[in-house]
Amino acid sequence: MRVSDRPEPRVRLRALPQPYAPAAHSLREQLRHPLVQSVLHILRELVASGGVRLVGDAPDEERALFTQLTATRGFAQALRHLATAHVAGAAVVEIVWGDDYMPHALRPAPPEMVQFGIGEDGEIVAVRLTTSAGVQDLPLTHAIIVDAYPAWHIYGVRELPIHALSKYLQAYDRVLRSMDLYLQRHAVPTAVAKTPASYTETETQQLYDALVKMQDALVAVLPDTETSVEFLEPRGTGMQLALELMSLLERLVARTLLGGILAVYEAQYGTRAQAQVHWEVMQRLISAVQQPIEHALHEQLWTRVCQYQLGRAPQGMLELNELDTVQREEIIRNIGDLVALGMVDPQRDRAWLRSLLGLADGED
Hints:
Layout: E1 18-22, H1 28-31, H2 34-48, E2 52-55, H3 60-70, H4 75-82, H5 85-88, E3 90-97, E4 103-109, E5 114-118, E6 124-131, E7 134-138, E8 143-147, H6 150-155, H7 166-186, E9 190-194, H8 201-217, E10 228-232, H9 238-258, H10 272-310, E11 317-320, H11 328-340, H12 350-357
Antiparallel strand pairs: 1-5, 2-11, 3-4, 3-8, 5-6, 6-7, 9-10
Helix pairs in contact: 2-4, 2-9, 2-10, 3-10, 7-9
């Protein structure tokens, strides 16, 4: 390599500081959509349900401090909230410090209520929150910030994967409205009465009233035996097409938000071996989602606690448990969600599930 080919130190693309840019601008409607919430629930559980662990050669005093930290009020909820950064771009948890400089409580902040001040290098230099008491600045020492897409701040690009959901969610809502109208019209078959030509207007009205009552009571007394009633059942595949379209949109939303994490959707159409492969892929992808959360927890929470309490940097690393190290009860809880969504079949995938839970033959 020639000397002239060497890079120039500290040369970087120039970026302008951005004062308090919205972290999740216009995301409230998408984040609060029931379909998005259902996917986020699965993501939070898979990423954070295993809790945290302390790895490395940490002394006893540090491990005791770690145990005290994990007992902080709101700790489990904070872990789950930080997983939202993968979808919303960033997530913030407020640290409420006690008089002893230990966290007294952890309070998640809604992504759409957070604004960030961005420095020249694209780093977050200030945080501002909108609360019921108005707009307030949150000191960085009182915050855990997971910034999942830091490079986007440099280029001023604020489009997130969730922004691509607008049309999917609108289509999903239209399908739901169409199904509601369909059921209103066709849930109860249309009754058609055939009467003799000699029927008077009064007799026709009496018959009409009897058929109207049938819709509520499902039983009606007709005026005479000469009247016949037929029921028109809806024909066609409108409802089936609507259900298939809803299933397609649900899978598109999951893939848009989570990439390949929910590729296990395909397991319901394949074999146990395919299901196992999808689960293993999901484990690796979940681990990738956990990395920025682990970094934020270690640098912005655990390191501060050790500095305040022990006067030194921590020797142990704070990490999230991966899926393969989660306790059996927590695995079962996650599997329950996957079964409810049709991703795993308990009967077809029985052998794989037993191996996943570490059950020997004949053990329940």
